[in-house]
Amino acid sequence: MKWVKSIAATTLAASLLASPGFAAHAAETAPAATKEGFNLTILHSNDTHSHAEYAPQRTTKIKELRAANPNSLLLDAGDALTGTLYFNEFTGEVEMKLMNLMGYDAMTFGNHEFDLGSSPEGHAALAKFVKGAEFPLLGGNLDFSKDPLFDGLQFQTVTKDFQNGKIYNGIIKDIDGEKVGIFGLTTEETPSISSVANVQFANYIDSAKKAVAEFEKQGVNKIVALTHIGYDDSADWDNDKLLASAVEGIDVIVGGHTHTKLDKAVKADTSFKNPTIIVQTGQYSENLGELDLTFDDNGAVVEYFGQLHALNNKENPVAADADATKLLAPYTEKIAAVKQQSTGNTAVSVLDGKRGLWGVRAGETNLGNVIADGMLAGAKKIDPEVQFAFQNGGGIRASIDAGDITVGEVMTVMPFGNALGIVKLTGAELYEIAEHSVKEFPKESGGFLHFSGLQVEFDGKAPAGKRVQSIKLNGKELDKAAYYKGATNTFTAKGGDGYETLAKAYADGRVSEPGTVDFEMFIDHLNSLKTVDAKVEGRIIATIPFTDIAKGSETEGYVRDLYYRDLTQGTSATTYSPNANLTRAQAASFIARVLKLEAKGATTFSDITSLEAATQKEITALAEAGIVQGQNGKFNPTAKVTRSQLALMFARAYNLQHDAKTGLTSDFNDISKYNEETQNAIALMQDLKIASGSNGKFMPSNNATRAHMAKMLSNYIPYVKESK
């Protein structure tokens, strides 16, 4: 087989970000044509969420990679459905036809495949998707037997004699005379976060062990787990790392659910002899994953190389496939009219529905605030005694651009059509609910709540269940013994996302269901505002322990960001020292931590040996990467860092992972005496909005403070490319 690869294109950043636990016998390099063993390419997608707009580009890339690598599999790790108007209008038909065109070999179920289970039609749309699929679906821990819509569709077995449009625990594919086993797993959390109706879920570890044993019984020693359990999701449920460490015999995990963008394949940290390689592409069909593997005669991975192919890259666009474009055209035309209908309202700035820390599943956002406000306003029209509302972050699916707000944008943000629920709760129960909301923080949780009328403060590093410090209703502390009326959606009110307190209230008859739909309340609220100028207002505050940071200040936000990313612990348990001058050692440590760089060799600086071992390694790693330099064999770790020097460090860090930006100019009038690299670095900081000046000056010779560092590092984080 001829492998078409460009290993030389692997950047220094990629090598520096490699996972530290890799065994010597499994090399992270593209399998060579001369390598003995069996070569296999796995193309993969996950969490595409009905983003069909990139399907023509995905089709092109699939055809291209298949032509180069005939021994290939095309797999999808679930959540192909829900999230855009393509699903709202056509309930899976578009996704099914496109995946058939692309020639998928198998797909596993994501939790969102079950979102329509509570509708009057139940899982009719999902059953239709399964029947129309020209590939098998895999559900090794699922049981559809109690849902008559799936009669004759599921076979709870591992087999080589599979049929398209059916559901199996696992299948065996013959590829160039070699047997490859593939089985599927879906997160056990699904009944808590979706509408599964009568579908039942078994333990993922037990199901995986059973599948591996069955494959081995049938002579299969190359095994792929196609999972929708998350790369590093909550250990209370399931994740790929735990799966790899608990089940021997899995060679590859093609994952989904956490929307994790793994720029490189990751070798799991296990105690087993043979390696397990984990991959995941991110979200929304933005990337197609490629994993090239070489197996030895015993079925062990001896070489691997994973990469992502961007499908939405405007600088290096992927051509649209003509067949996929033609297939998609009538559907796009039909939803265009819906998308373009205006609500008659305008957003002053982007209404933020992003993911990640401080996104809708791990922080307050302006969009979450507007949605919760709309829910409260809608509930008050029905029951004036309602005092607050809360919206689960998992129900906010996208952002809304600045400018005219269209119906299409609203439907994309809130695609599930959840109805209103009005619930009566005690103050003590609200504390339990708030605790559940923040228990995973700073990790994402679909159950993270956005509030209207309530203000919640919590310590995100305290033990789960003991985090909430204060809940105020319109500025006044809650009375834990008193009853209050609030609003939420019926998914949450019935205990969705694991809210047992709400499930109990529902069972007790303390929830009324007026039937008003969430997106209707949202549009009504937009109409009452006309112009939407929403802000983050401090409704949900993750506290920090530093008493020398002014509450509500700009610096507090930046330091909070670093604190909950474990990038700083302050200068003491209660101080951050924002006005203290930043030293070279401190700057190096901050940047090395955010880049996750690790030293490959011993330090060459003679004056850092008295520092903490971790600091020595961080300085050495940055020097190896060319981000910092010394002089005459010394680093001068206690020397102060100027603003221009700090800009230079960040620019070198940026250029390590990105193509260098050229032709940038700055409007600062006090940097002309500096060399070209420094001027370019300052211009880059301004262009990326990492740093700013004042009155046309950057003040390059001023000493940088720890507050400056907090701002620049926090603003730089979105540009970091990670291999986790």
TrEMBL record:
The keyword rRNA-binding is annotated on this UniProt entry: no
SUPFAM superfamilies: 5'-nucleotidase (syn. UDP-sugar hydrolase), C-terminal domain, Metallo-dependent phosphatases
Domain SLH: from-to ranges: 542-605, 606-664, 665-724
Keywords in alphabetical order: Hydrolase, Nucleotide-binding, Signal
Keyword Nucleotide-binding: yes
Annotated transmembrane regions: none
Signal peptide interval: 1-26
GO biological process: nucleotide catabolic process
Any single Gene Ontology cellular-component annotation: outer membrane-bounded periplasmic space
Gene3D superfamilies xref list: 3.60.21.10, 5'-Nucleotidase, C-terminal domain
Molecular function in Gene Ontology: 5'-nucleotidase activity; nucleotide binding; UDP-sugar diphosphatase activity
Pfam families registered for this protein in UniProt: 5_nucleotid_C, Metallophos, SLH
Entry's family note: Belongs to the 5'-nucleotidase family.
UniProt xrefs under PANTHER family: 5'-NUCLEOTIDASE (PTHR11575:SF24), 5'-NUCLEOTIDASE-RELATED (PTHR11575)
Protein name: 5'-nucleotidase domain-containing protein
